[in-house]
Amino acid sequence: QVQLVESGGGLVQAGGSLRLSCAASGLTFSSFDMGWFRRAPGKEREHVGAISWSGGSTNYGDSVKGRFTISRDNAKNTVYLQMNSLKPEDTAVYYCRAGPSLSGYEYWGQGTQVTVSS
Fold this sequence. Notes:
It is built from no helices and eleven strands. Helices cover 0% and strands 50% of the residues. The strands form two sheets. Strands 2, 4, 5, 6, 9, 10 and 11 form a seven-stranded mixed beta sheet that branches. 29% of the residues are buried. The chain is globular and about 40 Å long.
């Protein structure tokens, strides 16, 4: 079955950096656009950014532009989220998503907690 496993979360001070990873299995990873989302306590889910299947195109939410970078390694079936200049408001559970495919399928990871202290 399809599995997406995020890792790399943790506690970091404001201004610091973290790199999240999302390792995929059970799907043709190189065929899927990949996205990162986050949900902070009491808030709606927010789109952080996405990367095309080839890695040739990325987009980011306004709140993270210039600070976060998404990349992928199709040989390793892994997508990354490099987070720099972290702020307390970046505190959230971060999720990766595969898809949606042309057929409408999408898959989600279980999430990883990121906490930024002031």
